[in-house]
Amino acid sequence: MKKILQYLFEYKTLSREKAKEVLVNMSRGQYNEAEMSAFITVFLMRTITIEELLGFRDALLELCVKVDLKGYPVMDIVGTGGDGKNTFNISTLSCFIVAGAGQRVSKHGNYGATAISGASNVMEQLGYTFKNDNDRLLKELETANICFLHAPMFHPAMKIVGPIRKNLGVRTFFNMLGPMINPAEPDFQLVGVYNLEMARIYNYLLQQTSNAFTIIHSLDGYDEISLTGDTKVITQDGEKIMTPEQLGKRIVAAEDIYGGNSVEEAARIFTRIIKGEGSWAQNAVVLANAAMALHCTGNYISYDAAYLAAVESLESGKAYRSLQTLISLQ
Description:
Layout: H1 2-9, H2 16-27, H3 33-45, H4 50-63, E1 75-79, H5 90-100, E2 105-109, H6 119-125, H7 134-144, E3 146-150, H8 151-154, H9 156-168, H10 173-177, E4 188-192, H11 196-207, E5 212-218, E6 231-235, E7 238-242, H12 244-248, H13 263-274, H14 280-296, H15 303-315, H16 318-328
Parallel strand pairs: 1-4, 2-3, 4-5
Antiparallel strand pairs: 5-6, 6-7
């Protein structure tokens, strides 16, 4: 590792093959915590290259525990995190609305590294048991329309660097990797990114796949549709700017989507919203993200049609029943 660090300190970049090799070695516990911290920090000081990102992704996908969902077309809604906004769990809530609308979801998530409550924090608080047992995950998908893949249970490297990421408490390249390494290899992806540079990188990477995708970035810095300002939306067909009124029928204030000061508070907010008891602003933000995900599947003639399906899922209680069914299977 010392030679690699010295190489990087000379402002050189890693090839795709070398980047893969380093992360494989990291997964196997060949480096100590100080070495791994130094390596991760390098990419906080400069922009990661696409070759490096591809190499890291190659390593994680090669080493991961595979998931076979029997050909069910599944959706993932995931943000890179690291936007520093501490919103409530918008992506995870959107997943249940999508599941309630009839689209199966394989949600990939982790504990919050920079936020108080990541997807895994809130799911655990709600009573979900993390697992990588394929049969149980498949049963959840078939019964509740959703299963949850806790990243460290599928990716050895994510488990090893988890404590380091938490101690650093800042955005790292692992945030960038999260949406690209779902072991279920979802057919549809809604990916939220924290800046336009990451939007460009993801567009390049996802254009090389055959899967349908939508990349979103709120221009005021959120890695999701926040409705606090305009949102850049990128798909295979191009990109556009959409207003809060177009996406959620209203503009909201930053304080309206605050995520709370603890995991327990985040779970309470989550439960209120999924039960249909959220504020107008909270509901609007969740519905906008769910609608964009549903629209990504190609099963709706327009975004507005997808939005109506999301509203029906939440207001009818289907989204909440999906959560209840999932938790009952634990």
